[in-house]
Automatic annotation (TrEMBL), chain A:
Gene3D superfamilies: RecQ-mediated genome instability protein Rmi1, C-terminal domain. It holds the Pfam family RMI1_N_C. The lineage of its organism: Eukaryota, Fungi, Dikarya, Ascomycota, Pezizomycotina. Residues 102-120, 194-210, 320-333 have a biased composition (Gly residues). Belongs to the RMI1 family. Signal peptide: none annotated. This is RecQ-mediated genome instability protein 1. Residues 91-123, 166-235, 311-333 are annotated as: Disordered. It comes from the Eukaryota. Residues 125-305 form the RecQ mediated genome instability protein 1 OB-fold domain. InterPro entries: RMI1_N, RMI1_N_C_sf, RMI1_OB. Residues 219-231 have a biased composition (Low complexity). Residues 175-184 have a biased composition (Acidic residues). Residues 26-71 form the RMI1 N-terminal domain.
TrEMBL record, chain B:
Belongs to the type IA topoisomerase family. This is DNA topoisomerase. Residues 51-197 form the Toprim domain. Residues 215-677 form the Topo IA-type catalytic domain. Its EC number is 5.6.2.1. InterPro entries: Topo_IA, Topo_IA_2, Topo_IA_cen, Topo_IA_cen_sub1, Topo_IA_cen_sub2, Topo_IA_cen_sub3, Topo_IA_core_domain, Topo_IA_DNA-bd_dom. It comes from the Eukaryota. The keyword Membrane does not apply. Keywords: DNA-binding, Isomerase, Topoisomerase. SMART domains: TOP1Ac (SM00437), TOP1Bc (SM00436), TOPRIM (SM00493). Introduces a single-strand break via transesterification at a target site in duplex DNA. Releases the supercoiling and torsional tension of DNA introduced during the DNA replication and transcription by transiently cleaving and rejoining one strand of the DNA duplex. The scissile phosphodiester is attacked by the catalytic tyrosine of the enzyme, resulting in the formation of a DNA-(5'-phosphotyrosyl)-enzyme intermediate and the expulsion of a 3'-OH DNA strand.
Length: 333, 726
């Protein structure tokens, strides 16, 4: 398929044909469908001769997944519109939390009444069509934020814990603050079993509190607290129109996680995905993780994560941010 | 008394009296005094039997061993040291010596100490860092001179020396000190060592007939540690003291001692202190489901346990309610057991003693040593948590049948309920787990001994008993998309629990019958709100566990380090729940020493239960200042962290295993610490700033330099070290 390098018009015609071909191939996959214009401009930056279609496809896919879905002319117009959240959905979310408050503590009475099923639009609906989204934020909501703050701070100091043992970790390896569940770099962080969990008396479950002594398997089938594995994540998702919705990991989605999910990563929410009170409920059957990452977003997110966690936990902001240590200016080096 | 550490005590002593500079001490003094009077137990030797000199680590062991070897037929003579006796008897060692004339005597722990020559005794000059390569002298401290002399004299007439020190690294080194003393009197003397781990008769007799050589590697390892501790301890102590004293105020009269174990130990306390102090409680939400059936209220636990996002919890809760009925997805009923404890190690002994007997680790060790010296329990310093298959444990159990408290239990074991103990994974190859050797009637013991002995016996009997057994039932159900489970246990056989009151198998609950696939409408489903609570301050058991996991000190010395940081006023203990110093920011400093503004622990209902008598460790301002200071110097490895010490410990192990040599380790470690020393000196103002800050916090006005920064509240973030530099 090596083209001779002839006239420009012919080139243009060629590339638009190829663009169309690419679009057609992509339309059968779960990759978001790019606009012809975008494909054009992509192809025009490629030096002739163009590589084979398969590798072009791979390039297109990688570029798409690394792009901001909401940027103009990226996606095919029709696709973008048909793969966005219904506008009323995105609006319901804001009002939901306050209304739901009453539910707490009122026993099962409230459920009995009615309004189940399709009741209010705010209660629960299902997506009538596939929606393409990108991840703007991800949080582990099954662990205290403060615990995560402590862990990040220890990591920044180059420390981790293995059980009760304090271990030294390489500091600032890839600039990636977020070491949880990260398997690269050899920095394995295991949750501190010696801390809160063990001591508090097994979380009220097994109730054989006195025995946190030896790391023997002395707890008969004590209910385990969810470690990083069984974590529940919440996400902030954005569709091509720029509408954002929160999402909740209803059932474990294997590729979701701090350290594995990147900001800007693309996901396809299949038709039928439930949305309750404006919260998208994710499960592995309906949520297809496509991958990708918007480099700049991810960096900013990772850098700001510690501060956000502190703030959300209700802690005073770290006084001097990053570099400003207690060291007097005199001691440079 | 742990006389074993006599040399440390001597150093400590010296440290305390450093001001009285004492230039006149020299090795030569050793020889002076005692030649004139050599009138020790010189029993006339008319026979031609081989003469053997035996030396134990302490007098009580000498007596016990002499008793066993002689069958009780020995003569006692005094020496110039009031505590040391010489016991003479005959004993058949078997070939090649056969029937021998034996003199058994003892030392009192380490015979020698290391120190710097007189011209290094001034603190100011030569400068502290010269101590990294100053000559080091091995001397016999004054109160040991008569003991060394006794050995030297006895050696003159002996063919061989048999060393009966405790079988661990430290004991091996003491053995080498004894050997050196003996060789002064007799250069040709053969040197052997007896391996034993308790002073029970048969064990001692067999040890006497299976003599081995002294393990030079272990001797080297300890020698390296002693030298490093001396150099590093002195250099940093002098550096810290000289640097910080001029800051005046409360620092003026203090000696700021540094120890390579002390500091990481203090580091743990400070670290936890800040975790408690900086803790931010957070609300969480949880779905609680209860279902009543057959008059039993069954509480189901949410598989997600709890969520820290209210909105999300509400969404999930609503979906449960909407689903209305729950479906049982799994029902299981299976036998379960609560494992009996592992055989007892030193660390475990200390942890249990601090938790259940209200002793400090140090007290527990002292008492355990007494029990060992009296022959009631095996050697109390051991890392081993597995019994050798060959040991006759039943016989040991049988000795306990006469007791009124646990006798019937022991009898039951003897009658057939005996089970081989569990095998732990640790084996120091020197000693078995701590266990009772003979029966000690309560009247034979004082209060502390009685309680500790009881603990050792009960633990041992528990080990030889069977696991507690029961039936566990588990029910899992799906309520909406949420998973819930209930767990019940019915205890069928208590077994070891009957003799082991330190544990319990509570939470016993019987579940009513559920069947898979069955649907029901839960009686109650609630969205409950809770709040996280701060961790509690470290208890001694916690601290020991941390030191153990991080290789700080040996199981035998941990308790000492813990005591030391209290003695130095780096930490103090308060009764749990006492809230520490409350808000001691009230400038109460002059009276209470370096009292610390302990923000009281925010403890909710979930805090540690009971706690009567349990004490918690809280750092003083001084302790905080030192650790903060070093942490902020942003070394690759702060002195307040366990890493450097752990390295040293690993190197000692490597020496023992022949993977490196004493010389190499000394060179490497001294260089490492020298580098840290130089960095510390370069960044001294960081340390000073930390002290100033803490002083101010304590309520003292340090007007000289005002450090423009709000105080302690921001400490959490100030402690972040920047990435390492090389």
């Amino acid at each position: 398929m090596s083209q001779p390098p002839p006239h420009r018009e012919k080139d243009a015609a060629m590339s638009s044909a190829i663009a169309r071909q690419l679009q057609t191939s992509l339309s059968t996959t779960s990759t978001p469908l790019p606009s012809l214009a975008w494909l054009h401009s992509l192809l025009s930056t490629r030096s002739q001769p163009l590589p084979p279609l398969a590798s072009l496809l791979a390039t297109v896919r990688a570029r798409l997944l690394a792009a901001d879905l909401t940027s103009k002319n990226l996606l095919d117009d029709g696709y973008a519109q048909s793969h966005s959240f219904p506008p009323q959905l995105a609006q319901t979310q804001a009002t939901a939390p306050a209304g739901a408050a009453g539910a707490a503590g009122s026993g099962r009475g409230r459920g009995g009444g009615g309004g189940a099923g399709t009741g209010g639009a705010s209660r629960e609906t299902r997506l009538s069509h596939d929606v393409i989204v990108q991840v703007l934020d991800i949080q582990d909501i099954s662990r205290p934020r403060w615990e995560q703050v402590e862990q990040l701070e220890a990591l920044a100091r180059g420390e981790g814990t293995r059980g009760r043992e304090v271990i030294r970790l390489p500091v600032g390896g890839g600039g990636e603050e977020d070491g949880e569940e990260e398997d690269g770099g050899g920095a394995v962080v295991v949750q501190d079993q010696g801390g809160r969990g063990g001591r508090g008396g097994g979380g009220g479950g097994g109730g054989q509190g006195a025995n946190d002594g030896p790391p023997t398997s002395n707890a008969p089938a004590a209910p385990r607290q969810p470690g990083p594995r069984g974590a529940t994540h919440s996400l902030l998702l954005q569709d091509p129109q720029g509408q954002t919705l929160r999402a909740l990991e209803l059932k474990p989605v294997p590729r979701l996680g701090l350290g594995s999910t990147h900001i800007g990563e693309k996901m396809l929410l299949k038709a039928g995905t439930p949305v309750a009170r404006g919260v998208v409920l994710l499960d592995p059957a309906s949520c297809v993780v496509l991958g990708g990452k918007v480099e700049a977003w991810h960096r900013a997110w990772a850098e700001g994560r510690l501060e956000r966690l502190r703030r959300d936990a209700g802690a005073p902001p770290s006084s001097s941010g990053g570099g400003g240590m207690m060291t007097p200016a005199a001691t440079g080096g | 008394m742990n006389i074993r550490r006599a040399s440390v005590a001597a150093l400590r002593c010296w440290l305390r009296h450093h001001d009285l500079v004492n230039p006149a001490h020299l090795g030569s003094r050793l020889r002076l005094g005692f030649y004139a009077s050599r009138a020790t137990a010189a029993t006339a030797t008319t026979t031609n039997m081989t003469r053997i000199l035996c030396v134990a680590e302490k007098p009580s062991i000498a007596k016990a061993v002499a008793t066993h070897l002689s069958g009780g037929q020995y003569q006692t003579s005094n020496t110039r040291n009031t505590y040391i006796k010489n016991y003479s008897f005959t004993f058949d060692f078997g070939p090649p010596w056969g029937h021998c004339d034996v003199t058994m005597t003892a030392v009192k722990g380490h015979l020698t100490a290391v120190e710097f020559p007189g011209d290094y005794k001034q603190w100011e000059f030569p400068p502290p860092d010269s101590l990294f390569d100053a000559p080091v002298l091995t001397v016999v401290p004054d109160d040991n001179k008569s003991i060394a002399k006794n050995i030297e004299d006895q050696a003159k007439r002996a063919t061989a020396l048999v060393i009966w020190t405790d079988c661990d690294r430290e004991g091996e080194h003491i053995g080498s000190e004894i050997r050196d003393a003996a060789r002064k009197g007799n250069r040709q003397i053969q040197v052997k060592r007896a391996r034993f781990s308790n002073v029970e008769r048969a064990h001692i007799l067999s040890a006497a007939r299976r003599l081995v050589s002294l393990d030079e590697k272990q001797v080297d390892a300890v020698a390296a540690r002693i030298e490093l501790d001396l150099r590093i301890g002195y250099a940093f102590t002098r550096f810290l003291t000289l640097s910080l004293r001029p800051m005046g105020g409360p620092l003026q009269g203090l000696t700021l001692s540094y120890g390579s174990c002390q500091f990481p130990t203090l580091g743990f306390v400070v670290d936890r202190y800040f975790r408690v102090k900086n803790f931010v409680p957070e609300p969480f939400w949880s779905i609680k489901v209860m279902h009543e059936r057959d008059g039993i209220k069954v509480n189901f636990n949410w598989a997600r346990h709890r969520l820290f996002d209210r909105m999300m919890a509400v969404v999930l809760y609503e979906r449960c309610l909407v689903a209305r009925t729950a479906t049982v997805t799994k029902v299981s009923e299976k036998p379960t057991r609560k494992f009996k404890p592992l055989p007892l190690t030193t660390v475990e002994l200390q942890k249990m003693a601090t938790r259940f007997l209200r002793m400090t680790g140090q007290q527990a060790m002292t008492i355990a040593e007494k029990l060992y010296n009296k022959g009631f329990i095996s050697y109390p310093r051991t890392e081993t948590d597995r019994f050798d298959r060959g040991m006759d444990l039943r016989a040991l159990v049988r000795k306990q049948t006469q007791d009124s408290r646990w006798g019937p239990f022991a009898q039951n074991l003897v009658d057939g309920a005996f089970q081989q103990p569990r095998q732990g994974r640790h084996d120091d190859k020197a000693h078995p787990p701590i266990h009772p050797i003979t029966y000690a009637a309560p009247q034979a013991l004082d209060d502390g001994e009685r309680r500790l002995y009881e603990l050792v016996v009960r633990r041992f009997l528990a080990c030889c008993s069977d696991d507690a057994k029961g039936v566990a039932s588990d029910v899992e159900m799906l309520y909406g998309d949420e998973v819930f489970s209930a767990h019940g246990v019915m205890v069928l056989e208590r077994n070891y629990l009957d003799v082991y009151p330190y544990e319990n198998w509570s939470g016993t609950a019987v579940l009513p019958r559920f069947t898979v696939g069955e649907r029901f409408e839960p009686t109650e489903a609630l969205l409950s709100e809770g709040k996280t609570t701060a961790p509690s301050y470290l208890t001694e058991a916690d601290l020991i566990a941390l030191m153990d996991a991080n290789g700080i000190g040996t199981d035998a010395t941990m308790a000492e380090h813990i005591e030391k940081i209290q003695e130095r006023q780096y930490v103090r203990t308060v009764p749990r729940g006492g809230g520490g110093a409350g808000d001691a920011d009230d400038g109460s400093w002059p009276r209470t020493g370096w009292s610390c503004g302990a923000g009281r622990p925010r403890r909710g209902s979930g805090g540690g239960g009971g706690g009567s008598g349990v004490r918690e460790f809280i750092p003083t301002s001084l302790g905080v200042a030192l650790i903060e200071g070093f942490d902020r110097m942003r070394f690759e490895t702060s002195l307040g962290k366990p890493f450097l010490r752990k390295e040293m410990e690993l190197k000692m192990k490597a020496i023992c295993e022949g993977r490196t040599t004493k010389q190499l380790v000394l060179r490497e470690s001294i260089e490492g610490y020298r580098r840290v020393f130089e960095q510390s000196r370069a960044e001294l103002n960081v340390l000073k700033a930390a002290c100033r800050q803490e002083l101010k916090h304590v309520g003292l006005v340090m007007s000289a330099v005002v450090f423009g920064r709000p105080l302690l509240e921001q400490n959490a973030t100030l402690r972040i070290e920047t990435p390492r530099r090389i």
